[in-house]
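Researcher: Next sequence.
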Amino acid sequence: MKKQEIAQGRQRYAGLAKTTLCLALATVVPGNSIAFDIDYEAGVAAQHSDNIARRDQGEISDTVVAPRLWFSAVQTGSRVRLAAQGNVEYRHYIDDTFDDQLRGRFNGRLDWSVIPQRLDFIVQDSLSLLPVNQFAAFTPANEQQVNVFVAGPTLYARFTPVTRGQLDLRFIDSYAEETPEFDSQRYSSAVRVLHELSPRSNVSLNAEALDVDFDMPNRASDYRRYDGYASLTAERRRFDVQLDLGYSKLEMQRDMLGGPGFDESYPLGRITLDWRATPRSVFGITVRHQLSDAADYLINTRDLDFGLDRRAREFNDFRASDSIVEPNVFRERLVRGRYAYDGERLDLRVAPFSRRMQYVEGFVEDQERSGVIADLDFRLKPRTTLTVYGANSRREYQISRRMDEDWTAGVGVSHRFTRKWTGRVDLEHRTRESTELGRSYDENAVMVSLSYRR
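Model: Next structure:
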């Protein structure tokens, strides 16, 4: 085997190796004697699609069979705190429309108290399955594994009984299987002073610095970013508030043509508000006005589904996020609402959103996205649940004037045969209407699964 092929093989599994680090460290750190609380679900899922390549013309049908393992691990010891979840699957395409694939997703964080109340060490990892080309439909030929790995210490100092200081140092490595311009090494530091107003509320002053070095600097400019902001966190009986207000400064090392760098300042504002209107109903809103990039988003992967918990049908799901794998910095304006109702037989989730991304370097298309995601679960019987779900997303690209509108609608039924065995059937319709010739498509799919849950 040639050296280049060996190197490519090592890179292909680099992200997967990092995703195991949180679990591995938790088993060997000193003082860790508490067992994990592990949950898993294993089984087989299958999907038949009448347009698996999502083409405008010349549709191809195929059936994919995927043995799957979903897992979660939690530990809340005095020295080690761990939260991790993910899945791994092997996809086999019966009619060979696409090559068979081994894919996985993971999101985990490990906090190790090296010196209690003085020094913690944090390891965090996110492994996602995302598109290579954001302008094409998400298909097996247009997907890649993307990994963001974070590690570093946090030091604490107690000034008074209600005031403390905190220093965060982090190394961040980002890797994309098919988009090498996304690969980078990042170094960040943060100094914080936190003051406790009450047992459930505090204020803080924060100063953060981030230095980003790309493996391919000719595609995206290396940069430094400095954030300074004040924060308020408050938990009340019916309201929760998280607020950040400040400013960011961006220092680009050069412009997109390789010329001299430039600086930019940008207001920073983030607010998340949750209101528990009744014991079963929660309204929420998140607003963000900040500088960001794709790696920042992937560190907090719950943002990818706009806060919706789709655990009830996760094992039977063949979809993935359409988040952008793009290294460049953008100015983000996001408004996201949410409503959740948890009843005795009915659960409902609704999340409208609007997001605008303006890239600092002009060769990347600015875009606006808006839409809504909704899930409804109704328990027909104690062991049988009916699910109805839908999503609409509208994307407008500012330079090409292209506009895509995606619709997804589905209905599913799950039945728990025993305490551990569950079967599920879903019917789903997906469509895209695009102003660009050849980018529209319609797809109908049926999905079935049988799984065993611990």
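Model: The longest strand covers residues 144-160. The radius of gyration is 23 Å.
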